[in-house]
Write a structure and sequence with these properties.
Elements: H1 5-42, H2 48-82, H3 90-93, H4 106-109, H5 111-114, H6 146-158, H7 169-176, H8 183-192, E1 196-198, E2 204-206
Helix pairs in contact: 1-2, 6-8
């Protein structure tokens, strides 16, 4: 049984939230490191330095744990999206029809061959000279803009060609570095270029 679209959307939302937490924790680790460096530089023997250093290590461990969670959620979302391709479609379940029996030979059916009064004659067939026609060269597609090309590269990992799936523009913008204000325009360019298809529900799939 394939998973429903609501569950896939929930997994995507959870992944975006964990991604945000990971980003904030990494920033906190950096800030704690700066505080420890400044505190030790100003007074290496201060009693609060040990506590500050322990806090720094704790935040670093939290950041590592959340980063692993974000990677696990990404894998869960991809595996859940692939479940829709597991079940065979209706045409695959239908039994194949046997081919019809071959018809009687053409020699038995032809009245001309049965008539012995008609003698065979040699016929010479003149072959026409083939005129080489130059084949048209390949049509060069217009290259995609930088943001649209970057978005297409990311969508090839999260979308499928057989089923539509929702896209969180906020999560994709953070994962690709594309400004959130440019996401809609980039999606429209991919749809217009025939790389991505959208449905009436606002979901997308690869073409």
């Amino acid at each position: 049984m394939s998973l429903n679209k609501e569950l896939l959307a929930t997994l995507q939302t959870a992944g975006a939230a964990v991604f945000d937490a990971d980003t904030q924790l990494k920033l906190a680790v950096k800030r704690y490191g700066e505080r420890v460096h400044a505190a030790v530089g100003s007074n290496p023997f201060h009693l609060g330095n040990d506590t500050l250093f322990e806090n720094w290590k704790t935040v670093a461990r939290l950041s590592k744990t959340v980063a692993a969670m974000e990677e696990d959620l990404r894998n869960v979302y991809q595996m859940a999206g692939e479940l829709s391709d597991v079940e065979p479609s209706l045409p695959d379940l239908m039994p194949a029809l046997s081919a019809p029996a071959p018809a009687a030979s053409a020699q038995a059916a032809s009245p001309l061959v049965a008539d012995s009064s008609l003698a065979a004659t040699d016929v010479k067939i003149k072959r026409k000279k083939r005129i080489a026609v130059a084949k048209p060269g390949p049509v060069l597609a217009t290259p995609l803009p930088k943001n649209a090309a970057r978005l297409l590269k990311h969508l090839r990992y999260v979308l499928k060609t057989k089923s539509f799936a929702p896209i969180s523009q906020t999560a994709v913008a953070k994962a690709t570095g594309i400004p959130l204000g440019s996401m809609t325009a980039s999606l429209r360019r991919l749809v217009a270029a025939g790389q991505v298809q959208a449905n009436d529900s606002g979901m997308f799939k690869l073409v």
